[in-house]
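Appendix B. One record, verbatim.
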Amino acid sequence: MNVAVLPGDGIGPEIIAQARRVLDRLGLKITFHEAPVGGAAFERHGDPLPSETLKVAKQADAVLFGAVGDPRYDKLERAKRPEQAILGLRKELGLFANLRPARVHPELADSSTLKPEVVSGLDILIIRELTGDIYFGQPKGIRSRQGRHGQEREGFDTMLYSESEVRRIARVAFEAARKRNRRVCSVDKANVLETSQLWREVLIEESKTYSEVELTHMYVDNCAMQLVRNPKQFDVIVTGNMFGDILSDEASMLTGSIGMLPSAALDEKGKGLYEPIHGTAPDIAGKGIANPLATILSAALMLRYSLGQPQAAERIEKAVSKVLQSGLRTADIHTAGTRKVGTKEMGDAVVAAL
């Protein structure tokens, strides 16, 4: 098994290091190939996604990714900014299906910003289409136009989905629901957007192949409200790139911390890129206090979906649960009565639990 390791920026190298330790402890035959990405790659190669890094990613069986981004690069042209690396990887590797599980560990129910009775037992899966929508649609840009008060600038983006793009993400959602509670909620804005109208029509067509799975529809604004009102009503949520970006981050806070949530981005053959859904957190980078559990759990998803090691994945997940049961917490999930630990100490605990 060959794994490309792309630590990236900010806390990326710190959390990736702990995931590597956990994977090493399993004793599997995994060869790691590390390469720079994001701001770290720009500093060394003048490009956030150098050709050599892309080559390493394409040749690997899976990619373990940290995080990219840094305010220091905000004034660069957009194509050179660190965040373009992850967009480029998704496009070049054909990673169209983003799986973002939001599960509340019983020990963290009190860490959620919602009442424990609202989130206790929560286990939902958000499936976000990843290579279409407004992020990739053309044309886009900023141009000058004649306005009411003279020349002014206007920005424009294009929301675009093809029928085949919607159909393949729908199948991922229905297949996932088959293995869970057989319910799919498709989230769109079909009352306003033509793109969403097509999305809804295709979901209904695809649902006929999955008669055992219940399909419902919800407008995105209502879904955002329902996630904080009654999140346990959902099983699998499937939605487009932009709506999924927003809703999955909202769902992350139901679990107590964005530092707890892993993600998988898969191609049509099951190869994937695995990363925590949080960012680079430059304000705490280098302080040794970041939560590595989302990255460790992302490594578990990698074992399950791309490397064919479901038992090893389950071992990691059980080890994380055991550590949480012991009362250890990083700063983002620390509450009264628990013991605060740093990044490496949390990694030590998961390794020990294994």
